[in-house]
Structures are given as C-alpha cells and as structure tokens.
Amino acid sequence: MKKTIEATIRKNSIHTVTIDSLDSRGFGVSRIDGIVVFVEGALPGETVTIQIIKSDKRYCVGKVLSLISKSENRVASPCPLFPRCGGCDLQHMSYKSQLEMKEKMVRDAFIHIAKITEPTISRIIPSPRDMRYRNKGSFPVSLDGKLGFYRKHSHIIIPCDDCLTQSETTMKACRVFEYYIKKYNVSIYNETTGNGLLRHFVVRTITKNEIHITIVSTSGLLPNKQEMIDLFLKEIPTVVGIVLNINKRRDNVILGDNYTSLWGSDKLEEKIGDRTFSVSPASFFQINKYQIETLYGVVKRYIEETGAKRVIDLYCGTGTIGIFISDLCEQVKGIEVVPEAIVDAYDNAKRNGIKNISFECGKAETLIKGITDLDSFDTVIVDPPRSGCDRNLIEELCVNRLKTIIYVSCNPGTLARDVVLFTTNGYKINKVQPVDMFPMSNHVETVCLLTHS
User: Fold this and answer.
1) Are residues 263 and 312 in the same domain?
2) Residue range of the domain that includes 39
3) For residue 258, how many other CB atoms are within 10 A of its CB?
4) Are residues 347 and 404 in the same domain?
C-alpha cells in the first residue's frame, strides 16, 4: 500500500535532507520518500536538518534547524535583519549564484509553462550594484514610532536602522522622521482599531541623491508640521519636495487618492540616458536606478533591429519607454490606467521636446479595441504588472497580427503563460533577455521579442 504524506512526514517531525535545486522563490527543494519538501534558506548541494512546519497532500515545507554541509555559494548576510525582514530573499547566496538562479528561473518557465523544449535564453545582464540600488522605499510605521518592513507573511513590523538595498540618504530621512514622531509624540495608525495618524513613510531618490518624501496619514492635520519640514531641510539639504497623502482606507493599500504638497515640488526628476522624467508619488517607475537605462536599452535595440516605426506602448506608466525609444519611430501611442501617470507622461514628453508621442488613459484591454487604425501600427510594447497581460488584450493583438510584440515582464511565469497564447496564434519567439533589476530578491525582469510569421 502506498504511504500517505501524513503517515510518512508528520508536522513537527525532524529529518535530514540534501537539497537538489531551488524553486522560483529561492527555496531549496528536496524529497523524502519521493515527496517534495521545500526548505527556505537552504541551497543546492547542502545537507540540512529540518523540522516539518507544513504537511500538505502534495508537498511539505521544512524549516532549517542546522546546517550539516555548506554550499560554496553560501555567503554571510551583510544585513543583521535577514531573513526576519521580508525585504530580501537571497542575501545568503553569492551574487553570482543569484544570477544563475534567475536565469534558470526564466529558462524553466519557458520549458515547463510555455512547453518549449530547448529555449534560447540570453545570459542575464547583472546589475551594476547589488546593494544601495533601490530608488524607492515604503516604510510602515510601528506603534512605537519605528520605521521598518513587514516580516514575511505577517503584519509584524521589523524595525530597520539601515536597509542595505536603500540609499544612505533614504535611511537618514527615516531617522529624521522617527525623531519627529518621538519629539512631538505624533500618534500612529492602529490597523486593528482604525485610530491614529501616521501609516507609511515613502521616499524616492534619484542618482543625483535628491529625494522626495511622501507621508501617509489618515488626516491632513499633522501636528508641528512646520517643525517637521524644518527638520528635513536642516538634516537633508537634497530634499526637493514633501507631500502629504491622505489614506483613510481600512486595508493594506499604502497610498490613498488625495495629495497635499507641504513643501517644494510635488514630483521628482530623473534622467534616463539623455531624457529627463518627472515622477509623481502615485506613478510607477523602475526601482533600480542604476539599471533602468540597460533595461530600456534592450527594448530600444529590439526596436532598431525590427525597424519598428509605429509603436503602441501598453501599460506605459509615465511614458518612460515610449519616450526613450521615440527617436527611432514615426509615431508612439501610450496607454496607461493611472491618471496621475498620464499627466506625468504628457509632462515628460513636453520637457523632452517629443512631438511624435500621444497618451490615453484607460485599461489597455479596453482602449486597444478603440484604435481604429490599429492595423497601421507595426509594433506593440507591453510592460504589464506581475499578473501579466489580460487574455482579451492578447487575443485582440493576435487578431490584428501586429508584426512585432516586445514583452517586458517582471514575472517569468506569467510571461511564459502569455507567450503560449502568442505562439499558438502565429508568433515566433526571437529573443529572450533576462535583466537583473532586483538583486537580493527572487524577482527578475525579462524582455521577450516576438514576431508574427
């Protein structure tokens, strides 16, 4: 009689296992009596003693109790909060092995999801920096006035004195805000009762080290507001703007819909190549300020290689990709669902003197149907969220048989899923280029070039 998981691997039981591989989350993968066991924090080749913390009908999850033999790819984490803090996944891995894992993630997605036996995947492009690379930090405020990050799978805030993926200026701004909270005894939002003021502290930075601050509160009445502004200006001379965001919602969404400028500019400016872009607090902008030009450079290379002239840029955000490649095109049309991003997009086109680009606000899958001359465009760029493209959107693109699709993805799984729809409708995969935008995390960006046969 075949053993059941319950009979073989009971919850809280202790086992010694050898790790065979990593899954897409960076968890070690092993087997006990043929049953898959996922072990967070274990690396391939390592032998570990684990305790089973979850026993399901199809798999188990184990927690490392001790490390018996160590992988040559294991390194000491430079951050004392890892892995308790939920911000990083892979600080126990050398950066070289992180890149190998991410490249394999993309390859495995095309093999197992897209069912391509031998996909041609280019070597991943590493980030110039594996630390201090992030241009945005969103810090929840704990009830004792400390800023930090949520522990994985919980709403427990782990206070953080120095996040090593954030800029030093960002972390200094956090300390100034904590000082303000303590000095003026400012109340903190309690998500259980719904009472209190301060919820989140959001900082954006640019390569020139200028920063923009957004304070998220349940009310527009901040105590000692001018004293707070004076503190920031005294301690951080590179602050260009401070904005108050009002969020009264009883959910996990960080930003509300209402903004009030407290001081300076309500936007931040960043350069990508020879283009200048303004970014408002609600707008999406690629997180790795040292790798954005490389990512967009891959898109631009594909535009140049395919001879694209009339381009639709879907999920265009603040218009960064469309504006970046506009000098190679006759016409670019951007579509984005966030109204604030569309305002930024028009502003960005104007400040860069771009005349051959236009934007429209709405859902991509809806507005694409209203483009009466869709068949006159030769290329579509899609840069969707992690959930991937809407199926109706893909079907509409396939019906119109646009010559080229350039798919910018932050999720190899949904990219491979969507590629299946394109390839079954006459498209061919020409190139797949992974780009590491997120060192120390299990995320990877991929640019896929598809052409219609």
Assistant:
1) no
2) 11-69
3) 11
4) yes
Return the structure tokens found at 373.
Answer: 């001359």
Amino acid residing at 395: E
Q: What average pLDDT score do residues 298-325 get?
A: 97
The CATH number assigned to the domain holding 56 equals 2.40.50.140
Tokens representing 144 are 């004792």
Helix (H) / strand (E) element for 381: namely strand 379-382
Give the pLDDT score at 7. Answer: 52
User: Which are the catalytic amino acids?
Assistant: 410
Q: What is the mean pLDDT of residues 245-263?
A: 94
Contact 343, 383 (CB under 8 A): no
User: Using an 8 Å Cβ cutoff, are 276 and 347 in contact?
Assistant: no
The pTM of the full predicted model, rounded to 2 decimals, is 0.92
In a domain, 281, yes or no: no
Number of domains in the chain: 3
Q: What is the CATH number of the domain that holds 403?
A: 3.40.50.150
79 domain residue, yes or no: no
Q: Would you give the end-to-end CA distance of the chain in angstroms?
A: 53
The answer on 363 and 430 residing in a single domain is yes
Distance CA 62, CA 42 (A): 10
Q: How far apart are CA 203 and CA 212, in angstroms?
A: 6
User: In angstroms, how far apart are the furthest CA atoms of the chain?
Assistant: 74
The pLDDT, as a whole number, for residue 1 is 42
CA distance 406 to 429: 10
Q: How many CB atoms lie within 10 A of CB 312?
A: 24
